[in-house]
Design brief:
- The complex is a heterodimer of chains A (502) and B (156).
- Helix content of chain A is 73%, strand content 1%.
- In chain A, a hairpin with a 6-residue loop joins strand 1 and strand 2.
- Chain A contains 23 helices and two strands.
- The N and C termini of chain A lie far apart (49 Å).
- Chain A is an all-alpha fold and 502 residues long.
- Chain B is 67% helix and 0% strand.
- Chain B has five helices and no strands.
- Chain B starts with a helix and ends in a 13-residue tail after the last helix.
- Chain B has 156 residues and is mainly alpha-helical.
- The chains are: A mainly alpha (502), B mainly alpha (156).
- At the A-B interface, helix 8, helix 9, helix 18, helix 19 and helix 20 of A face helix 2, helix 3, helix 4 and helix 5 of B.
Chain lengths: 502, 156
């Protein structure tokens, strides 16, 4: 079986002392970050990106991935214990998880969340191993037309499936694409949008921009809410063991959540957040006791927690097999690959099988570590909840600065943090999200390159995009997605999915 | 009254921002970059298309402005103190990192950043900055070997 030899290769990569250590470190830091208030997984990955620069590519990506799903686990802990989601994907867990905790059942809630997530992680790891190979083969037959169409579909549906205003998000994508044009044109060598600064001839600094948009801007957001963020009333954990009844009621939601998350995660713009909301809605509809939801129904914890972990991981499928990120986290992972000098795309599987299978197997190992980290060590995380934000944010600022400075040993990059931090916060106040911006920024140069190549191949005939079956299908899908979310019926549905939060 | 409300509404400001960026990038493109043709696109072709799209989206966003829905102006109760201090902190680091070295640069940066909070006191910000500077020097420079001097070029 090819699958087993691939997984064996993956295990041989992960089971080295160094990679195991960094996988553990990633999970550990991720959990801490997920627990700490006001620091999201995006900010953490951005902050630690520069530090992974000196590691090998496998180690760097294994650690960054660990941070991401570690943060998801940590986020559910705070959601259950203090009714504050550590990051957005665990927002629905607060609904029933916190109610369970108030009824003295925090332990079973945490246990079901962790075990459900582990189950989902295991299933999706196998799923990635099965699907990635064939998907890569299809992608290798793609020409520039198909790639261009695929990226357009990815960008459009990433905003169609997200919450918030469609137009504003489209604007943010285009803004990202434009900023991504900064630097030297690969075809002609002409400097573009450098405003006379030599430092910009290699383009804007991805690490500085993401640190600014997700790290610094987030601090400013938290400043605004300072004061109403008192961390009193941490619920006691008690016994972790769920009852037999808890298990019986959780099995269905875990299975459905895993399936839902696996599918939704692959879609651009899907991933953890959408999966958890969709799973909660589904469980509430299917339940014989919908009135228990919001009052401590264990299904409301088991389903969304499995779904968000499944979604978070299956979002890696398009990023690894096609080289196209569907959400901001995978976009940053792609950025990490580029920093390491790896050209993302379907060739990674063939040219860097160690990296590919190592990363996939590390996801399973990391999930296993997280069950161990989270359940017995819950006391440590609870005590971290007491860290005051006032001593936390100066640390974030200085880590961001040092990290960004060290990548190119450049003060100019640090100024970019200042600018994008301020810009990110202003845009947040105007209700424009930074995630589509990062997607556009990373895909911009690729999108342009494939467009130009496609037009040369087809002698300047724009209709050629519609004459090729695959690119035509992809573009029609993009147009349909755009049209669908503009319709009043769907835009209402779309709002409904995300309102459970309130 | 209505005009001030309009001018300070979120949608209007964002739309204006999109239009401004689109105009600046579009202008730069027309001024400096060869556009080329659809067959052989120059470095200006794609940026010009994007700038035009951004302006169109900006116009729609600004025109959709719903003044009645939210009475709150976009930048009401803006956290000026935090905004200025955090921005100054990263600028200070950029200015000091090479010359003053990581220890001094970290102390100054953390001091400024900690003053972003209204609850900051001299004592607390001193303690935080010294602890963090020691941590950064030990972990990042000594431990991970990042290219930053303990003492910078100003000290020989």
């Amino acid at each position: 079986m090819e699958l087993f030899s691939h997984l064996a290769l993956g295990f041989s990569v992960v089971l080295t002392a160094q990679n195991l250590f960094f996988c553990f470190l990633g999970c550990f830091i991720g959990t801490a970050i997920g627990v700490l208030p006001g620091v999201g997984p995006l900010a953490t990955i951005a902050m630690l990106l520069p530090l992974t620069y000196t590691m090998g590519p496998e180690t760097a990506l294994i650690m960054l991935a660990g941070i991401y799903y570690g943060a998801l686990y940590g986020g559910s802990t705070t959601a259950i214990l203090i009714n504050l989601p550590g990051e957005s994907a665990s927002a629905v867990t607060t609904l029933d998880g916190y109610q369970m905790a108030r009824q003295g059942r925090a332990g079973p809630a945490l246990a079901v969340a962790a075990l459900g997530s582990f189950f989902a992680g295991t299933v999706v790891t196998v799923l990635i191993a099965i699907v990635a190979g064939p998907m890569t083969k299809i992608a290798l037959s793609f020409g520039s037309h198909e790639y261009f169409a695929l990226m357009v579909l990815g960008l459009i549906s990433s905003v169609a499936l997200a919450s918030g205003s469609l137009l504003k998000a489209l604007g943010m994508i285009i803004l990202g694409l434009l900023f991504g044009m900064t630097g030297t044109d690969i075809y002609t060598g002409q400097a573009r949008f450098t405003w006379g600064m030599i430092e910009l001839s290699d383009g804007l600094d991805l690490v500085a921009i993401s640190v600014g948009l997700f790290g610094i801007a987030e601090i400013l957001r938290n400043m605004q809410h300072q004061g109403d963020n008192t961390r009193t009333g941490i619920q006691k954990v008690g016994s972790l063991m769920p009852s037999r009844e808890d298990f019986r009621r959780s099995v269905g939601p875990v299975l459905r959540g895993t399936a839902l998350g696996s599918v939704l995660g692959v879609l651009p713009g899907g991933g953890a957040l959408l999966s958890s909301f969709a799973s909660y809605t589904m469980e509430k509809k299917l339940s014989k006791h919908p009135e228990q939801f919001g009052h401590g129904a264990i299904e409301g914890v088991a389903g969304p927690e499995s779904a968000n972990n499944a979604g978070a991981q299956s979002a890696f499928i398009p990023m690894l097999s096609l080289g196209i990120p569907g959400n901001a986290v995978t976009a940053l992972m792609l950025g990490a690959m580029i920093l390491q000098g790896i050209a993302p795309g379907p060739n990674v599987l063939n040219q860097q099988p160690e990296l590919f299978w190592g990363l996939i197997v590390s996801m399973w190992i990391g999930n296993l570590m997280l069950v161990v980290l989270n359940l017995p060590l819950i006391g440590i995380w609870v005590s971290m909840l007491k860290v005051p934000y006032t001593s936390l944010f100066p640390a974030i600022v200085i880590f961001c600065c040092i990290g960004v400075f060290s990548v190119h040993n450049s003060s100019f990059a640090v100024y970019q943090i200042t600018i994008f931090g301020a810009l990110g916060y202003m845009l947040y106040r105007l209700e424009a999200e930074p995630a589509p911006f990062i997607l556009g920024f990373i895909l911009g140069p690729l999108l342009e390159e494939h467009l130009r190549r496609a037009m040369i191949i087809s002698r300047g005939d724009a209709l050629s995009f519609l004459e090729r079956p695959i690119s035509a299908t992809l573009l029609v899908c993009a147009a349909l997605a755009l049209a669908a979310v503009s319709l009043p019926y769907f835009s209402k549905k779309r709002e409904q999915i995300f309102v459970e939060e309130d | 009254m209505l005009t001030t409300k309009l001018l300070s509404s979120k949608d209007f400001l964002l739309g204006a921002f999109y239009i401004a960026v689109g105009a600046i990038y579009g202008g730069y493109t027309l001024e400096d970059l060869p556009i080329g043709s659809a067959l052989n696109m120059g470095p200006g072709y794609f940026p010009l298309v994007l700038s035009a799209l951004l302006i169109i989206i900006g116009v729609i966003v600004a025109l959709r402005t719903t003044v009645m829905l939210s009475d709150e102006a976009a930048f009401s109760n803006f956290p000026w103190r935090g905004f200025i201090m955090i921005s100054l902190a990263s600028i200070a680091f950029a200015l000091l990192a090479r010359g003053a070295g990581i220890i001094l640069a970290s102390i100054v940066t953390v001091m400024i950043a900690s003053w972003a909070s209204r609850e900051a006191t001299w004592k607390s910000s001193m303690v935080t900055s010294i602890i963090l500077a020691a941590f950064c020097a030990a972990v990042f420079v000594y431990g991970m070997g990042l290219p930053l001097g303990m003492l910078g070029t100003w000290f020989g």
